Amino acid sequence: MGAGHAHRLYRHGHSTVHALPPHTKLAACFAFVVVVVSTPREAMWAFALYAVLLAAVAYAARVPAGFLLKRLLIEIPFVAFAVLMPFVAEGERVDVLGLSLSVNGLWGAWNVLAKGTLGVAASVLLASTTELRELLLGLQRLKLPPLLVQIASFMIRYGDVITDEMRRMRIARESRGFEARGVRHWGVLAKSAGALFIRSYERGERVHLAMVSRGYAGSMPVIDEVTASRAQWTHALALPFAALVVCLLGWTL
């Protein structure tokens, strides 16, 4: 994990949120999501306050609203599922614009939309202010099993390698006049997928042999020791602590 690795979700910046140690941001994001999930769905005002808290974090991190909203599109499948719930759920029915909808389904749809959107927004803010390499170091600092951290590290690095290999193969096909237009071209694409699998497997074998020859024995050396001061922990946990106050009010009011 010594080499840097940028990703499309990351937005370079020098804000106080960017400067926080990665493990503090990971802990804060996880705690915030737990608090949001624990909030009763009937407390709609609480979810509005959670959105305000995330907006404040985005403002402090200098993450534009457009940047955040564009990456929230990843939850479209969950939105589609939530939209269907009022139609398929059972129980008491209510008429809305001439449609017979389930009351439990409406509450369930609201629950999925509100909590899912807030959770995705928190994750996007985390990814926008933390590089992948730092995330891995943060997971390591939080004592996640080393084998899982290594698997995640290899997936991140070689995902881009395989994607680049696919791009080169596509350019090679197009330079020879090939263009997939129908079912009859699926055979060529299948052969390309097979060749990509073989190349990826061989590359993995070469990387493993290179690691073993350099003394790899099941664990990666820790190059950077990530630490956090009490003030940094306080700044990072301000978000979940404020959310916890809102959650408790949601249960009591």
How would you characterize this protein structure?
The protein has about 250 residues and is mainly alpha-helical. Helices cover about 70% and strands about 5% of the residues. The chain contains 10 helices and 2 strands, in the order αααααββααααα. Strands 1-2 form a two-stranded antiparallel sheet. A hairpin with a 2-residue loop joins β1 (about 95) and β2 (about 100). α2 packs antiparallel against α6 and α2 (about 20-40) crosses α7.
Short descriptors:
70% helix, transmembrane helix, ABC/ECF_trnsptr_transmembrane, 10 helices, single chain, mainly alpha, 253 residues
List the total number of helices.
Answer: 10
> Could you tell me how far the N terminus lies from the C terminus, measured between alpha carbons in angstroms?
48 Å
Biggest sheet: strands, sense, closure? 2 strands, antiparallel
**What class would the helix/strand composition place it in?**
mainly alpha
Number of strands: 2
How would you state the average pLDDT, rounded? 87
| Percent helix | 55-70%
Poorly predicted parts: none
In percent, how much strand structure appears in the residues? Answer: under 5%
H/E series: HHHHHEEHHHHH
Which sequence of strands runs across the widest sheet?
Answer: 1-2
Shape: globular
Taking all Cα atoms into account, the compactness measure Rg is 23 Å
Transmembrane segments: 43-60
Subcellular location: Cell membrane
Protein name: Cobalt ECF transporter T component CbiQ
Keywords: Cell membrane, Membrane, Transmembrane, Transmembrane helix
